[in-house]
Amino acid sequence: MRLSDILHLCRQNLWRRKSRTILTVLGVIVGCCSIVMMVSLGEGINEINEQSLKQMGDLTIISVYRQNSYDTDPSTSTDGKLDDKAIESFKQIAGVTGATAQMSLSYSVTMTADNGRYVASYGDIQAIDMTQLENMGYQLTVGTAPTRDGEVLAGQYFAYQFADKFRPESSNMRSQPQDMGDGTYMVCDVNDCEQVPADQLGDDAKPFFDPLTTKITLTIQTGDNASGGSVGMSGFVGALGDSANDSGISGISGSGSGSGSGSGVRGANGSGNTFELKATGLLKQSWNKGSATSTGILMDIAQLKAMIAKADKSAAKTTTYEQALVKVADIKQVADVEQQIKDMGFSTSSYEEIRKQMEEQSRGIQLALGGIGAVSLLVAAIGITNTMVMSVSERTREIGIMKALGCYVRDIRIMFLGEAGFIGLFGGLIGCLVSAAISLVINVVSLGGPSGETVWQAIVGGENVTRISVIPWWLFVFAILFSTLIGLISGFQPANKAVRIPALDAIKNDQ
Protein backbone atom coordinates (compact mmCIF):
# COMPACT_ATOMS: atom_id res chain seq x y z
CA MET A 1 0.00 0.00 0.00
CA ARG A 2 1.12 3.53 -0.74
CA LEU A 3 1.64 5.92 2.14
CA SER A 4 -1.14 8.13 0.82
CA ASP A 5 -3.53 5.15 0.94
CA ILE A 6 -2.52 4.37 4.51
CA LEU A 7 -3.06 7.99 5.56
CA HIS A 8 -6.46 7.99 3.83
CA LEU A 9 -7.48 4.85 5.74
CA CYS A 10 -6.28 6.40 9.01
CA ARG A 11 -8.43 9.49 8.49
CA GLN A 12 -11.41 7.38 7.40
CA ASN A 13 -11.18 5.01 10.35
CA LEU A 14 -10.78 7.81 12.91
CA TRP A 15 -13.78 9.67 11.51
CA ARG A 16 -15.87 6.45 11.48
CA ARG A 17 -16.28 6.70 15.27
CA LYS A 18 -16.43 10.48 15.65
CA SER A 19 -17.58 10.66 19.27
CA ARG A 20 -14.98 8.21 20.54
CA THR A 21 -12.18 9.88 18.58
CA ILE A 22 -13.16 13.37 19.77
CA LEU A 23 -13.31 12.26 23.41
CA THR A 24 -9.91 10.58 23.11
CA VAL A 25 -8.38 13.67 21.52
CA LEU A 26 -9.99 15.77 24.26
CA GLY A 27 -8.16 13.68 26.85
CA VAL A 28 -4.86 14.37 25.10
CA ILE A 29 -5.70 18.10 24.94
CA VAL A 30 -6.31 18.21 28.68
CA GLY A 31 -3.07 16.32 29.35
CA CYS A 32 -1.05 18.53 27.00
CA CYS A 33 -2.54 21.71 28.51
CA SER A 34 -1.73 20.48 32.00
CA ILE A 35 1.95 19.93 31.18
CA VAL A 36 2.38 23.18 29.24
CA MET A 37 0.61 25.34 31.81
CA MET A 38 2.36 23.76 34.80
CA VAL A 39 5.79 24.21 33.24
CA SER A 40 4.90 27.74 32.07
CA LEU A 41 4.07 28.74 35.64
CA GLY A 42 7.50 27.49 36.69
CA GLU A 43 9.09 29.52 33.88
CA GLY A 44 7.11 32.53 35.08
CA ILE A 45 8.56 32.13 38.57
CA ASN A 46 12.04 31.89 37.04
CA GLU A 47 11.49 35.11 35.04
CA ILE A 48 10.22 36.94 38.14
CA ASN A 49 13.32 35.81 40.07
CA GLU A 50 15.63 37.04 37.30
CA GLN A 51 13.91 40.42 37.20
CA SER A 52 14.24 40.71 40.98
CA LEU A 53 17.98 40.08 40.69
CA LYS A 54 18.32 42.57 37.84
CA GLN A 55 16.70 45.26 39.99
CA MET A 56 19.38 44.57 42.59
CA GLY A 57 22.17 45.21 40.10
CA ASP A 58 24.27 43.89 37.24
CA LEU A 59 24.38 40.08 37.48
CA THR A 60 27.70 39.91 35.62
CA ILE A 61 29.65 42.08 38.09
CA ILE A 62 32.07 40.42 40.53
CA SER A 63 33.36 42.36 43.53
CA VAL A 64 36.94 41.41 44.46
CA TYR A 65 38.56 41.99 47.88
CA ARG A 66 41.77 41.19 49.66
CA GLN A 67 41.11 38.14 51.82
CA ASN A 68 42.49 39.71 55.02
CA SER A 69 40.77 43.06 54.59
CA TYR A 70 40.88 43.62 58.33
CA ASP A 71 44.68 43.63 58.26
CA THR A 72 45.79 47.28 58.41
CA ASP A 73 49.15 46.50 56.82
CA PRO A 74 48.80 44.75 53.45
CA SER A 75 52.58 44.20 53.32
CA THR A 76 52.26 41.61 56.10
CA SER A 77 49.55 39.64 54.29
CA THR A 78 50.39 36.39 52.53
CA ASP A 79 47.40 36.78 50.21
CA GLY A 80 47.54 38.29 46.71
CA LYS A 81 47.99 42.04 46.59
CA LEU A 82 45.09 43.90 45.05
CA ASP A 83 47.15 46.39 43.06
CA ASP A 84 47.42 47.66 39.50
CA LYS A 85 49.17 44.46 38.43
CA ALA A 86 46.33 42.35 39.85
CA ILE A 87 43.74 44.48 38.01
CA GLU A 88 45.60 43.87 34.74
CA SER A 89 45.68 40.13 35.45
CA PHE A 90 41.89 40.12 35.91
CA LYS A 91 41.49 41.64 32.45
CA GLN A 92 43.40 38.71 30.93
CA ILE A 93 40.94 36.10 32.23
CA ALA A 94 38.81 34.58 29.47
CA GLY A 95 35.30 36.03 29.50
CA VAL A 96 36.23 39.26 31.31
CA THR A 97 35.25 42.42 29.42
CA GLY A 98 36.49 44.96 31.95
CA ALA A 99 38.10 45.41 35.36
CA THR A 100 38.78 48.39 37.57
CA ALA A 101 39.66 49.04 41.16
CA GLN A 102 37.37 51.24 43.18
CA MET A 103 38.22 54.10 45.52
CA SER A 104 35.98 55.68 48.08
CA LEU A 105 36.54 58.95 49.95
CA SER A 106 36.24 58.33 53.69
CA TYR A 107 36.68 61.90 54.84
CA SER A 108 33.57 63.75 55.94
CA VAL A 109 32.40 66.09 53.21
CA THR A 110 29.82 68.80 52.61
CA MET A 111 28.42 69.81 49.24
CA THR A 112 26.65 72.94 48.08
CA ALA A 113 24.98 73.97 44.81
CA ASP A 114 23.62 77.17 43.27
CA ASN A 115 25.95 79.53 45.15
CA GLY A 116 25.39 77.76 48.44
CA ARG A 117 21.57 77.76 48.45
CA TYR A 118 21.31 73.98 48.38
CA VAL A 119 23.35 72.08 50.96
CA ALA A 120 24.15 68.41 51.62
CA SER A 121 25.97 67.61 54.86
CA TYR A 122 27.29 64.31 53.57
CA GLY A 123 28.31 62.76 50.27
CA ASP A 124 29.34 59.42 48.82
CA ILE A 125 32.39 60.08 46.62
CA GLN A 126 33.74 57.12 44.66
CA ALA A 127 36.16 56.66 41.79
CA ILE A 128 37.00 54.11 39.13
CA ASP A 129 39.23 54.01 36.09
CA MET A 130 37.06 56.05 33.72
CA THR A 131 38.63 54.34 30.71
CA GLN A 132 36.74 51.24 31.85
CA LEU A 133 33.37 52.98 32.26
CA GLU A 134 31.77 51.44 29.17
CA ASN A 135 33.48 48.07 29.59
CA MET A 136 32.13 47.80 33.13
CA GLY A 137 28.55 48.32 31.98
CA TYR A 138 27.87 51.64 33.70
CA GLN A 139 24.77 53.18 32.14
CA LEU A 140 23.79 56.85 31.92
CA THR A 141 20.18 57.96 32.11
CA VAL A 142 21.17 61.29 30.56
CA GLY A 143 24.35 63.13 29.59
CA THR A 144 27.81 61.92 28.60
CA ALA A 145 30.94 60.55 30.24
CA PRO A 146 33.51 62.99 31.69
CA THR A 147 36.39 63.99 29.42
CA ARG A 148 38.22 66.63 31.51
CA ASP A 149 39.54 66.96 35.03
CA GLY A 150 36.92 68.49 37.28
CA GLU A 151 34.11 66.68 35.42
CA VAL A 152 32.25 63.87 37.20
CA LEU A 153 29.17 61.66 36.96
CA ALA A 154 26.33 62.10 39.46
CA GLY A 155 24.16 59.31 40.80
CA GLN A 156 20.63 58.89 39.48
CA TYR A 157 19.12 60.43 42.65
CA PHE A 158 22.08 62.60 43.64
CA ALA A 159 20.19 65.91 43.88
CA TYR A 160 17.59 64.54 46.33
CA GLN A 161 20.02 64.68 49.27
CA PHE A 162 20.29 68.49 49.08
CA ALA A 163 18.23 70.75 51.31
CA ASP A 164 17.11 74.27 50.41
CA LYS A 165 18.25 76.51 53.25
CA PHE A 166 15.78 79.21 52.21
CA ARG A 167 12.75 76.98 52.89
CA PRO A 168 11.18 75.90 56.20
CA GLU A 169 12.45 72.63 57.66
CA SER A 170 9.17 70.85 56.88
CA SER A 171 9.57 71.44 53.15
CA ASN A 172 13.26 72.06 52.57
CA MET A 173 13.94 68.61 51.02
CA ARG A 174 12.37 66.62 48.20
CA SER A 175 11.57 62.94 48.72
CA GLN A 176 13.20 60.56 46.27
CA PRO A 177 10.53 58.69 44.21
CA GLN A 178 10.78 54.91 44.51
CA ASP A 179 10.78 53.06 41.20
CA MET A 180 8.16 50.31 41.50
CA GLY A 181 9.47 48.49 38.42
CA ASP A 182 6.18 48.67 36.50
CA GLY A 183 6.46 52.14 35.01
CA THR A 184 5.20 53.85 38.14
CA TYR A 185 6.85 55.60 41.08
CA MET A 186 5.94 55.79 44.76
CA VAL A 187 6.05 59.45 45.81
CA CYS A 188 5.87 60.35 49.51
CA ASP A 189 5.54 63.60 51.42
CA VAL A 190 5.06 64.45 55.08
CA ASN A 191 1.43 63.31 54.94
CA ASP A 192 1.17 60.19 52.77
CA CYS A 193 2.49 58.23 49.78
CA GLU A 194 1.06 57.98 46.29
CA GLN A 195 1.86 55.70 43.34
CA VAL A 196 1.91 57.65 40.07
CA PRO A 197 2.95 56.87 36.46
CA ALA A 198 6.41 58.03 35.40
CA ASP A 199 5.01 60.56 32.93
CA GLN A 200 2.82 62.15 35.61
CA LEU A 201 5.51 63.01 38.14
CA GLY A 202 4.90 66.58 39.25
CA ASP A 203 7.44 69.25 40.11
CA ASP A 204 7.13 68.34 43.80
CA ALA A 205 8.61 64.94 43.01
CA LYS A 206 11.64 66.42 41.25
CA PRO A 207 14.80 67.71 42.96
CA PHE A 208 15.34 71.43 43.53
CA PHE A 209 18.00 71.71 40.83
CA ASP A 210 19.43 69.93 37.79
CA PRO A 211 22.91 68.53 38.58
CA LEU A 212 23.89 68.74 34.90
CA THR A 213 23.43 72.52 34.78
CA THR A 214 24.49 73.40 38.31
CA LYS A 215 28.07 73.34 39.56
CA ILE A 216 28.70 71.41 42.76
CA THR A 217 31.12 72.70 45.39
CA LEU A 218 32.68 69.88 47.41
CA THR A 219 34.43 70.55 50.71
CA ILE A 220 36.60 67.82 52.24
CA GLN A 221 37.00 68.05 56.02
CA THR A 222 40.55 67.16 57.01
CA GLY A 223 42.84 67.52 59.98
CA ASP A 224 41.19 68.15 63.31
CA ASN A 225 37.77 68.48 61.64
CA ALA A 226 37.97 65.10 59.85
CA SER A 227 35.70 62.47 61.29
CA GLY A 228 37.15 59.58 59.37
CA GLY A 229 39.98 58.79 61.83
CA SER A 230 43.13 56.98 60.84
CA VAL A 231 41.23 54.01 59.46
CA GLY A 232 38.27 55.28 57.46
CA MET A 233 35.29 53.31 56.16
CA SER A 234 33.07 54.90 53.53
CA GLY A 235 29.47 54.01 52.90
CA PHE A 236 30.44 51.42 50.29
CA VAL A 237 33.91 50.10 51.13
CA GLY A 238 36.79 50.90 53.47
CA ALA A 239 40.36 50.50 52.39
CA LEU A 240 43.99 50.98 53.26
CA GLY A 241 47.19 51.24 51.30
CA ASP A 242 50.70 49.88 51.76
CA SER A 243 51.50 52.74 54.11
CA ALA A 244 48.40 52.30 56.28
CA ASN A 245 50.48 52.86 59.38
CA ASP A 246 50.60 56.56 58.41
CA SER A 247 47.51 58.27 59.75
CA GLY A 248 47.05 60.36 56.61
CA ILE A 249 46.10 57.33 54.51
CA SER A 250 42.59 57.37 55.90
CA GLY A 251 41.41 59.55 53.08
CA ILE A 252 41.47 56.82 50.42
CA SER A 253 39.65 53.52 50.39
CA GLY A 254 39.82 50.91 47.63
CA SER A 255 41.63 52.08 44.49
CA GLY A 256 43.15 51.14 41.17
CA SER A 257 44.87 52.43 38.11
CA GLY A 258 43.66 55.47 36.25
CA SER A 259 44.91 57.85 33.63
CA GLY A 260 45.62 61.56 33.97
CA SER A 261 47.52 63.61 36.50
CA GLY A 262 44.57 65.34 38.08
CA SER A 263 46.21 68.70 37.72
CA GLY A 264 42.99 70.22 36.48
CA VAL A 265 41.29 69.88 39.88
CA ARG A 266 41.08 73.39 41.22
CA GLY A 267 40.35 74.82 44.63
CA ALA A 268 37.66 77.41 45.22
CA ASN A 269 37.50 80.36 47.63
CA GLY A 270 41.24 80.11 48.20
CA SER A 271 40.88 76.88 50.18
CA GLY A 272 42.87 73.72 49.42
CA ASN A 273 40.08 71.39 50.49
CA THR A 274 37.25 72.92 48.44
CA PHE A 275 36.67 71.86 44.83
CA GLU A 276 34.26 72.81 42.08
CA LEU A 277 32.82 69.85 40.16
CA LYS A 278 30.73 69.72 37.02
CA ALA A 279 28.44 66.71 36.41
CA THR A 280 28.31 65.71 32.75
CA GLY A 281 25.86 62.82 33.15
CA LEU A 282 23.55 60.95 35.52
CA LEU A 283 24.31 57.29 36.26
CA LYS A 284 21.64 54.61 36.28
CA GLN A 285 21.35 53.16 39.76
CA SER A 286 23.13 49.79 40.16
CA TRP A 287 23.89 48.84 43.74
CA ASN A 288 26.61 46.27 43.09
CA LYS A 289 28.58 48.92 41.19
CA GLY A 290 28.52 51.14 44.25
CA SER A 291 26.10 53.42 46.04
CA ALA A 292 27.54 56.36 44.11
CA THR A 293 25.34 55.28 41.19
CA SER A 294 22.36 56.19 43.35
CA THR A 295 23.09 59.26 45.48
CA GLY A 296 26.82 59.88 45.13
CA ILE A 297 29.47 61.14 42.74
CA LEU A 298 31.68 59.00 40.52
CA MET A 299 34.96 60.33 39.15
CA ASP A 300 38.26 59.13 37.73
CA ILE A 301 40.72 57.56 40.17
CA ALA A 302 43.51 59.97 39.27
CA GLN A 303 41.19 62.90 39.94
CA LEU A 304 40.24 61.65 43.40
CA LYS A 305 43.89 60.98 44.26
CA ALA A 306 44.77 64.54 43.26
CA MET A 307 41.94 65.91 45.41
CA ILE A 308 43.11 63.89 48.43
CA ALA A 309 46.71 65.02 47.94
CA LYS A 310 45.63 68.65 47.75
CA ALA A 311 43.19 68.55 50.66
CA ASP A 312 45.36 66.50 53.02
CA LYS A 313 49.11 67.00 52.69
CA SER A 314 49.74 64.11 55.09
CA ALA A 315 47.91 61.56 52.93
CA ALA A 316 50.40 58.98 51.67
CA LYS A 317 50.34 57.46 48.19
CA THR A 318 48.70 54.04 48.03
CA THR A 319 49.49 51.22 45.59
CA THR A 320 47.38 48.39 47.00
CA TYR A 321 43.64 48.56 47.34
CA GLU A 322 40.77 46.94 49.12
CA GLN A 323 38.22 46.40 46.35
CA ALA A 324 37.96 45.97 42.59
CA LEU A 325 35.12 45.31 40.18
CA VAL A 326 35.29 42.74 37.37
CA LYS A 327 32.76 42.63 34.53
CA VAL A 328 32.04 39.29 32.80
CA ALA A 329 30.64 39.02 29.28
CA ASP A 330 28.06 36.33 30.00
CA ILE A 331 26.26 35.39 33.19
CA LYS A 332 27.10 31.72 32.51
CA GLN A 333 30.80 32.56 32.85
CA VAL A 334 30.53 34.31 36.21
CA ALA A 335 31.09 31.17 38.32
CA ASP A 336 34.20 30.16 36.35
CA VAL A 337 35.75 33.65 36.42
CA GLU A 338 34.95 34.02 40.11
CA GLN A 339 36.71 30.74 40.87
CA GLN A 340 39.82 31.78 38.92
CA ILE A 341 39.99 35.02 40.89
CA LYS A 342 39.67 33.09 44.15
CA ASP A 343 42.53 30.85 43.03
CA MET A 344 44.69 34.01 42.77
CA GLY A 345 44.22 34.58 46.51
CA PHE A 346 41.34 37.04 46.61
CA SER A 347 37.87 37.01 48.11
CA THR A 348 34.90 37.62 45.82
CA SER A 349 31.20 38.28 46.00
CA SER A 350 28.50 38.35 43.32
CA TYR A 351 24.86 37.51 42.76
CA GLU A 352 25.84 34.15 41.24
CA GLU A 353 25.25 32.16 44.43
CA ILE A 354 21.85 33.80 44.97
CA ARG A 355 20.97 33.23 41.31
CA LYS A 356 21.91 29.56 41.53
CA GLN A 357 19.79 29.03 44.63
CA MET A 358 16.79 30.72 43.02
CA GLU A 359 17.36 28.73 39.82
CA GLU A 360 17.43 25.44 41.76
CA GLN A 361 14.22 26.37 43.55
CA SER A 362 12.55 27.24 40.23
CA ARG A 363 13.74 23.97 38.70
CA GLY A 364 12.28 22.01 41.61
CA ILE A 365 8.96 23.82 41.25
CA GLN A 366 8.96 23.16 37.49
CA LEU A 367 9.58 19.45 38.01
CA ALA A 368 6.80 19.23 40.58
CA LEU A 369 4.33 21.11 38.38
CA GLY A 370 5.41 19.17 35.29
CA GLY A 371 4.86 15.91 37.17
CA ILE A 372 1.31 16.96 38.01
CA GLY A 373 0.65 17.69 34.33
CA ALA A 374 2.24 14.39 33.27
CA VAL A 375 -0.37 12.49 35.29
CA SER A 376 -3.10 13.98 33.10
CA LEU A 377 -1.23 12.94 29.95
CA LEU A 378 -0.81 9.44 31.36
CA VAL A 379 -4.59 9.22 31.74
CA ALA A 380 -4.90 10.39 28.13
CA ALA A 381 -2.45 7.66 27.05
CA ILE A 382 -4.67 5.06 28.71
CA GLY A 383 -7.60 6.49 26.77
CA ILE A 384 -5.71 6.19 23.47
CA THR A 385 -4.81 2.58 24.24
CA ASN A 386 -8.42 1.78 25.05
CA THR A 387 -9.63 3.42 21.83
CA MET A 388 -7.15 1.49 19.69
CA VAL A 389 -7.93 -1.86 21.39
CA MET A 390 -11.62 -1.30 20.73
CA SER A 391 -10.84 -0.35 17.13
CA VAL A 392 -8.90 -3.61 16.58
CA SER A 393 -11.72 -5.67 18.07
CA GLU A 394 -14.33 -3.98 15.88
CA ARG A 395 -12.28 -4.33 12.69
CA THR A 396 -11.07 -7.91 12.99
CA ARG A 397 -12.88 -9.00 9.82
CA GLU A 398 -11.52 -5.98 7.94
CA ILE A 399 -7.98 -6.93 9.01
CA GLY A 400 -8.48 -10.50 7.78
CA ILE A 401 -9.72 -9.31 4.37
CA MET A 402 -6.72 -6.98 4.02
CA LYS A 403 -4.36 -9.87 4.76
CA ALA A 404 -6.18 -12.18 2.34
CA LEU A 405 -5.85 -9.57 -0.41
CA GLY A 406 -2.07 -9.55 0.10
CA CYS A 407 -1.67 -6.47 2.29
CA TYR A 408 1.70 -6.44 4.06
CA VAL A 409 1.76 -6.92 7.81
CA ARG A 410 3.87 -3.78 8.18
CA ASP A 411 1.15 -1.75 6.39
CA ILE A 412 -1.45 -2.90 8.91
CA ARG A 413 0.89 -2.02 11.77
CA ILE A 414 1.64 1.41 10.26
CA MET A 415 -2.09 2.05 9.80
CA PHE A 416 -2.93 1.45 13.47
CA LEU A 417 0.17 3.27 14.71
CA GLY A 418 -0.73 6.15 12.40
CA GLU A 419 -4.21 6.41 13.88
CA ALA A 420 -2.82 6.48 17.41
CA GLY A 421 -0.12 8.95 16.41
CA PHE A 422 -2.66 11.28 14.77
CA ILE A 423 -4.72 11.32 17.96
CA GLY A 424 -1.62 12.38 19.92
CA LEU A 425 -0.57 14.92 17.26
CA PHE A 426 -3.98 16.59 16.98
CA GLY A 427 -4.37 16.62 20.75
CA GLY A 428 -0.91 18.18 21.16
CA LEU A 429 -1.50 20.88 18.54
CA ILE A 430 -4.89 21.89 19.92
CA GLY A 431 -3.57 21.64 23.47
CA CYS A 432 -0.73 24.06 22.69
CA LEU A 433 -3.14 26.55 21.12
CA VAL A 434 -5.45 26.35 24.14
CA SER A 435 -2.47 26.71 26.51
CA ALA A 436 -1.24 29.79 24.63
CA ALA A 437 -4.70 31.37 24.91
CA ILE A 438 -4.96 30.60 28.65
CA SER A 439 -1.44 31.94 29.26
CA LEU A 440 -2.22 35.12 27.33
CA VAL A 441 -5.39 35.75 29.33
CA ILE A 442 -3.62 35.18 32.65
CA ASN A 443 -0.81 37.59 31.75
CA VAL A 444 -3.09 40.27 30.32
CA VAL A 445 -5.25 40.23 33.46
CA SER A 446 -2.15 40.39 35.70
CA LEU A 447 -0.83 43.36 33.68
CA GLY A 448 -3.98 45.39 34.24
CA GLY A 449 -6.48 44.44 31.54
CA PRO A 450 -6.66 44.14 27.76
CA SER A 451 -5.03 46.75 25.57
CA GLY A 452 -2.69 46.71 22.61
CA GLU A 453 0.33 47.35 24.83
CA THR A 454 -0.51 44.80 27.52
CA VAL A 455 -1.28 42.07 24.96
CA TRP A 456 2.11 42.61 23.33
CA GLN A 457 3.87 42.67 26.71
CA ALA A 458 2.03 39.50 27.75
CA ILE A 459 3.44 37.74 24.67
CA VAL A 460 7.04 38.98 24.51
CA GLY A 461 7.61 40.26 28.05
CA GLY A 462 9.94 43.17 28.76
CA GLU A 463 12.41 44.64 31.24
CA ASN A 464 9.76 45.89 33.67
CA VAL A 465 7.02 43.38 32.74
CA THR A 466 6.07 40.68 35.22
CA ARG A 467 4.45 37.68 33.55
CA ILE A 468 2.92 34.88 35.61
CA SER A 469 2.94 32.35 32.75
CA VAL A 470 5.87 32.12 30.32
CA ILE A 471 5.76 29.59 27.46
CA PRO A 472 9.08 29.38 25.58
CA TRP A 473 8.99 28.13 21.98
CA TRP A 474 10.75 24.89 22.88
CA LEU A 475 7.93 23.99 25.27
CA PHE A 476 5.41 24.00 22.40
CA VAL A 477 7.69 21.79 20.30
CA PHE A 478 8.28 19.44 23.22
CA ALA A 479 4.55 19.19 24.03
CA ILE A 480 3.59 18.34 20.42
CA LEU A 481 6.37 15.77 20.01
CA PHE A 482 5.69 14.25 23.42
CA SER A 483 1.95 13.97 22.77
CA THR A 484 2.62 12.31 19.40
CA LEU A 485 5.09 9.92 21.03
CA ILE A 486 2.57 9.06 23.74
CA GLY A 487 0.04 8.27 21.01
CA LEU A 488 2.47 5.99 19.15
CA ILE A 489 3.46 4.16 22.34
CA SER A 490 -0.19 3.74 23.33
CA GLY A 491 -1.04 2.32 19.89
CA PHE A 492 1.93 -0.06 19.71
CA GLN A 493 0.33 -2.97 21.61
CA PRO A 494 -3.05 -2.78 19.78
CA ALA A 495 -1.16 -2.62 16.43
CA ASN A 496 0.80 -5.76 17.32
CA LYS A 497 -2.42 -7.47 18.31
CA ALA A 498 -3.90 -6.61 14.91
CA VAL A 499 -1.00 -8.08 12.90
CA ARG A 500 -1.01 -11.31 14.96
CA ILE A 501 -4.60 -12.18 14.06
CA PRO A 502 -4.63 -15.12 11.53
CA ALA A 503 -6.25 -14.14 8.24
CA LEU A 504 -8.77 -17.02 8.10
CA ASP A 505 -9.89 -16.54 11.70
CA ALA A 506 -10.28 -12.85 11.08
CA ILE A 507 -12.43 -13.39 7.98
CA LYS A 508 -14.71 -15.79 9.86
CA ASN A 509 -15.16 -13.18 12.58
CA ASP A 510 -18.56 -11.41 12.47
CA GLN A 511 -17.02 -7.98 13.24
From TrEMBL:
Residue intervals of the MacB-like periplasmic core domain: 21-159
Topology of this chain in the membrane: Multi-pass membrane protein
Record Pfam families: FtsX, MacB_PCD
GO cellular component: plasma membrane
Transmembrane stretches, start-end: 21-42, 367-393, 414-442, 471-492
GO molecular function: transmembrane transporter activity
Keyword Repeat: no
ABC3 transporter permease C-terminal domain location: 372-502
PROSITE patterns for this protein: PROKAR_LIPOPROTEIN (PS51257)
UniProt key word Membrane: yes
Matching InterPro entries: ABC3_permease_C, MacB_PCD, Macrolide_Exporter_MacB
UniProt entry keywords in alphabetical sequence: Cell membrane, Membrane, Transmembrane, Transmembrane helix
Location in the cell: Cell membrane
Classification via PANTHER family: ABC TRANSPORTER PERMEASE YTRF, MEMBRANE COMPONENT OF TRANSPORTER-RELATED
Entry similarity comment: Belongs to the ABC-4 integral membrane protein family.
The protein, known as: FtsX-like permease family
Native organism taxonomy: Bacteria, Bacillati, Actinomycetota, Actinomycetes, Bifidobacteriales
